[in-house]
Amino acid sequence: MGNHYYKVMIVDDELLIRQGILHYINWQEEGFQIIGEASNGKEALAMIASEQPDIIITDIVMPVMNGMAFIQHVKEQYPTIEFIVLSSFADFDYVRATFKSGVVDYILKPKLDAVTLLEALHRVTDSIEKETKTPSNKATIDLKQTLKKLINHYQIDEDIGTLDAQFLDPQFILVEERRHFPNKDQEKGVALSDDATKVILIEDDEQQSLYLINTTPEAIKAISQRAKEMAHVSYLISDAFTSLEQLHTRFQADIQLLRQAYFYLSNQTVLTKDRLPERKIYASMFDLNIFLLLFKQNKLTEATAYLDTHLEQIQADYLYDANELKNFLGNALFNVTIALTALKKETKTLEHKKYQYFNAINHATTFDAAVDHFYRFIGEVRAIVDETKPQPSNNMAQLLNYIDTHYDQSLTLTELADAFHFNPSYLSSYFSNHHNQGFSDYLTSVRINKAKQLLTDSDLSIADIGSMVGYGDHSYFCKVFKKQTDFSPSKYRKVQ
């Protein structure tokens, strides 16, 4: 039986770009087949029915039919085709809007090379394979496609009443599960299944899954309660509704709004519209020129403090456009690099890495992650600006000593940062760069080492020991202890 090749179409009005993509990699060797090229969306649409591509690589700004309109047309007629979007920095805001249409990935044209292209292609094929390997029969697949169309407000062939009749219980909710550590071996949808008659996975990727749940009002309360108890997961839950006719409305009014809020409130376990905190509307008072002036005067601490005030105000306005925040951080990043060059600092390494930081900020799914990437960049800037290069050992020793003497409290990175007048994101980067462990890993190791000592040298109960080393939750203490030592606390005590 012959090899399976994923069929790829290239759409770009620039011939040189198309030719470059064609020659970047050995397509067949990597498992792909180029089945066509087009110079605009209209030309590409005419080819799709006969060529049936699996993946389309498309520019966003093109004559006749631009990439945005092209993607929307294709997704309406061929929802299984996946897209990789090409963009320049200038049209980056435009590109972000395409993700709402189901684009899997994008590539910045200045960074387009063989490695970047292959990485994007493999992310797309992983998504395709995950979709095709999900165990389901044809009826379930058809229903899932219909639900996707309803969510996107597309026309469907089925009667809504007939669709509703396939579900036994009176109410529906949409639930989006957000996994904080997607690389961990986590079972999906654990909090959702026990109390639901029917759970349908509508959208799924590494970090999040969107479910339609058919259930009863009583069970909805149970689902919400159980979701609160889950570790390393957040749930975005829509208002209940009684017909699939309301699916698009609930998705737009609830899930889309909660997605905006989650970006800033990712520490919340459950987000519903009626449980959102008070929103404080952000009125921009930030002056980039002041920030850059402080920076040029080598007052980096004052500059970051000025920036922190601005960022805290944005976070309090949790419906502030996440793309605006990312644009702001990206703009500051590029301006700082330009200012460094003007100050005659050596920036060769940073010039290369700034694109990595820019990309990481734009891929960030939470406010904390975006700001953390920015402050990692600032950490590198600080090393360049500080020409006297003072040894960090004294600061580091004080940080470690503070943790060693406060491990028994509910110590957080934010509390440690406050104690030493650091920005939390910068402290996280500083700690990792100047110690062989991150803050959380070091705190855990201190606590577990102390617990091991108490288990060996005392007759205290395991619950008391857990509490004494900073774990108020007995079951969580046991879970962390076993992960660190491969023993439960009781077994560890027995073998000593």
From TrEMBL:
Keywords: Cytoplasm, DNA-binding, Phosphoprotein, Transcription, Transcription regulation, Two-component regulatory system. It is found in: Cytoplasm. Coiled coil: none annotated. Residues 397-495 form the HTH araC/xylS-type domain. One of its GO terms (biological process) is phosphorelay signal transduction system. Residues 7-124 form the Response regulatory domain. GO terms for molecular function: DNA-binding transcription factor activity; sequence-specific DNA binding. The keyword NAD does not apply. InterPro entries: CheY-like_superfamily, Homeodomain-like_sf, HptR, HTH_AraC, HTH_AraC-typ_CS, Sig_transdc_resp-reg_receiver, Tscrpt_reg_AraC-type_HTH. Gene3D superfamilies: 3.40.50.2300, Homeodomain-like (1.10.10.60). The modification 4-aspartylphosphate is found at residue 59. One of its GO terms (cellular component) is cytoplasm. Pfam families: HTH_18 (PF12833), Response_reg (PF00072). PANTHER family: HISTIDINE KINASE-RELATED (PTHR42713), TRANSCRIPTIONAL REGULATORY PROTEIN HPTR (PTHR42713:SF3). This is AraC family two component transcriptional regulator. It comes from Streptohalobacillus salinus.
